[in-house]
UniProtKB/TrEMBL annotation:
<dbReference type="InterPro" id="IPR017871">
    <property type="entry name" value="ABC_transporter-like_CS"/>
</dbReference>
<keyword id="KW-0067">ATP-binding</keyword>
<dbReference type="GO" id="GO:0016887">
    <property type="term" value="F:ATP hydrolysis activity"/>
</dbReference>
<comment type="similarity">
    <text>Belongs to the ABC transporter superfamily.</text>
</comment>
<dbReference type="GO" id="GO:0031460">
    <property type="term" value="P:glycine betaine transport"/>
</dbReference>
<dbReference type="InterPro" id="IPR003593">
    <property type="entry name" value="AAA+_ATPase"/>
</dbReference>
<dbReference type="GO" id="GO:0016020">
    <property type="term" value="C:membrane"/>
</dbReference>
<dbReference type="GO" id="GO:0015418">
    <property type="term" value="F:ABC-type quaternary ammonium compound transporting activity"/>
</dbReference>
<dbReference type="Pfam" id="PF00571">
    <property type="entry name" value="CBS"/>
</dbReference>
<dbReference type="Pfam" id="PF00005">
    <property type="entry name" value="ABC_tran"/>
</dbReference>
<keyword id="KW-0677">Repeat</keyword>
<keyword id="KW-0547">Nucleotide-binding</keyword>
<dbReference type="InterPro" id="IPR046342">
    <property type="entry name" value="CBS_dom_sf"/>
</dbReference>
<dbReference type="InterPro" id="IPR003439">
    <property type="entry name" value="ABC_transporter-like_ATP-bd"/>
</dbReference>
<dbReference type="GO" id="GO:0005524">
    <property type="term" value="F:ATP binding"/>
</dbReference>
<feature type="domain" description="CBS">
    <location>
        <begin position="314"/>
        <end position="370"/>
    </location>
</feature>
<keyword id="KW-0813">Transport</keyword>
Amino acid sequence: MLRFEQVSKRYADGTVAVDDLNLDVAEGELVTLVGPSGCGKTTTMRMVNRLEEPTAGRVLFDGRDVAEYDPVRLRRRIGYVIQQVGLFPHRTVLDNTATVPHLLGWRRPKARQRAAELLDLVGLDPAVYGDRYPDQLSGGQRQRVGVARALAADPPVLLMDEPFGAVDPVVRERLQNEFLRLQAEMRKTVLFVTHDIEEAVRLGDRIAVYGQGRVEQFDSPAAVLGAPANDYVASFVGSDRGLKRLSVTPVEKGDLEQPPVVHLADPMERAVARMRADGARWAVVLDENERLHGWVPAHEARGGEDAGRVARHARRMEAWLPLGASLKKAFSMMLQYDAGWIAVLDEEDRFLGVLTPGSLHEALRRSIDADAQDVPRAEVAFDTAEAPRVAAD
Ligand SMILES: Nc1ncnc2c1ncn2[C@@H]1O[C@H](COP(=O)(O)OP(=O)(O)OP(=O)(O)O)[C@@H](O)[C@H]1O
């Protein structure tokens, strides 16, 4: 959808902001450009909507050189969100959002209706916020209006230049999550500039790590964190990249351990026998609908005729994760619930297995090896530790 071919930009004073850039962004892909201040990210972006012209090479939009487009028309097909949102102070939120539909000649009621839908989409109730003026909004709300406005004409491409840079970290994370949710529905082609590697990793399908005017690595977040292309990238992503990687590595079926599974209605005696046979100190307990109920420890009752049913001994375990959740989420849940394991469920809430600190660590290592060997994670052979036993309660 977007392609940079040997693009360079030298400003009049001789500054080379972008140096022989080659980059392609597929339709529906979100690419983050990340790098230190002054490395050429913004210049890269502004060459797409022709706020800057390259001094060499060309930028293609939908297969055509942007230089061939009328700049005004081009910009209507490319949404642009910047940090200093640039809302018109004397226009209401609704009118600000309707700016581009107006420019496109839509009738006023239609433009305002579209604006109201978009405000809703970005989490601002148009009935509450539509008639306010920008200075009556919080920073986070202004950023939302900026995103709504950029989406108003439903452009296929969005350029976002540090759109969440000016808000505090909590609001920022919320805006990021909302944007990810929106993007999952809209599948726009997005170029997203940030100087924050965490943000780049969370949002990007791929990340372009900029050095001075050049892209040092262009790859998936997991690959950038797991196998930095050179020392520059390694130092930019930081020594805690293993930890950062947790947030981009999903839980897969092959990561899960299979403790014994018993049901609430089972006789406890039989359940204890199962656990003994497996050498396990506890079992997962499911209810009559095969839904997760919790767990039962083996030491609780030695079994025997008078032990009754599992239901009498079972304990609730509320925490669970869907398959595909990040390892980071699994880890933080283990800490939050002070739990030695977390159940993982499929889309229909069926129990699939558990993740323990041991299997989580193993999954992380396997995903790093998988990238290094360029094979799926499930195919990575492990040479050191055996699969750890399910942790004790
Ligand atoms: N109009 C201009 N004239 C001359 N030099 C410029 C101009 N605009 C940008 N530059 C220089 O080009 C280089 C790249 O700037 P650019 O704004 O693209 O970087 P950036 O990575 O977006 O930085 P930041 O994260 O600080 O916004 C910088 O050295 C900057 O000073």
